[in-house]
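Hi there, hope your week has been kind to you so far. For a while now I've been wondering how a particular protein folds. I'm sending you its amino acid sequence along with the backbone structure tokens. Could you read through the record and tell me how the tokens relate to the sequence? Take your time with it, there's no hurry, and the full record follows here.
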Amino acid sequence: MADDDRNPEEEFQELLRRLMSGDTSGLDPEQLSRLSGMQIDPAMMQAVMNQLQGAMSGAQDGIDWGLAERQALHIANQDGLGVSTGQRTDLDQAFSLAALWLGEATTISDLPRPPKAVTRGAWVSATLPVWQELAEPVATSIADALTEALGQQAPDDMQDLIAGAGRLMRTVGGSLFATQLGQVVGRLSTEVVGGGDVGIPVMPDGDAAILPQNFADFGRDLEIPDDQLALYLATRELAHARLFRHARWLRLHVISQVREFAHGIRVDTDALEELASRFDPSQPDELRSALESGALLPQRSEEQTAALTRLENLLATIEGWVDVVTEDATSRLPSAARIAEAVRRRRAVGGPAEQALGSLVGLELRPRRMREAAAMWRAVTDAVGAAGRDALWDYPDLMPSADDIDDHAGLVARLAAESRGETAPADAMDDALAQLIAEETGEGSSDGDPAERGDDDPTPDDQRPV
């Protein structure tokens, strides 16, 4: 049968089959005008075809993270401002003095590369690989769920056709997520002051940076001299970068805990199926809005809540140490206390972009117990000094626990005793371990008492000396 003899329904099915199979060559827009017999708007159908062809042409295994980078850089570079020579000089001087002050406040060594002033676009390029790694589990979950939901919404006679479109639909959902992530990271680049502003190690290992464009916004309402602000923020940025450079295991530890949380995310299938029933690929705004608002992510499970609590304790432990070290290093600054309080409040509240990131991946990177953790680190410093405090970052097993944040008296007593060469007082954990060992060896039990066994010789035959 010639092409012109096909009815509109057959022609429509043929167009879909060609598209779903990846054959987008030779699609004539004039063909769409013949779909009017099916009461389909040819203009709308052209928009749908363009959207789906674009998705198919960029389809690949996994998420196209290039979309996220392009979107983030578009937002970051909108104002087109670079770093002036004066800004670079001022911040270089601030970093140099901050490094000297930190040398007196911590035994953790300096960075292998000099810190620098960077543009928003440079911050995006440097940090995007980490954002991609953290968001990948959520992006994959949403893309897979969208594919499944669209398949469930299709009628039975279209199942064979939909089955061949899984890769396309996965790409559509994943691309929308990547675009939203790019928008969030781009907006985040307009808020952060330094590389360590969000608490997790997003900068490359050993790198420290300040964004002059955002530095001006941070200090606008504080009425504090710019040189004092620059010195404090440079000190804090260096302390954060030094810690992650020193404790090589810490970066992987933090990222693993974030990914553990993200892997537990399950898409709200009811909300997604309801959305898929009216999904129009040519107008993805509704899906985009649902992604950014977090509407597709249900309430946290018990496992996720536990993972989030562990992560918050870890972030608080890190930032509490940074807080104490920065306080000691900047004790010469008249306005240090005021700046420190502004930084703590800013971290506790978070900016609009950080809140959007929380909606997108279901995770708020807030060290909610930073004040309690800082009090713990202050007590440890007073008891054993900077060297004893910093040694706790040498190995994961030495790092203070959540219980130490709750009640640091036991930790301080143990460290103080060890510093004097004394045996540390036993705590509840030591007592429980001793009891477990005693039960395993039979010591302290009635079964192990020779008198109660009726043995004349308490030494078993196979253990008597020869």
Residues 35-40, 444-466 have pLDDT under 50 and may be disordered. Residues 108 and 243 are 7 Å apart (CA to CA). The two ends are 102 Å apart (CA to CA).
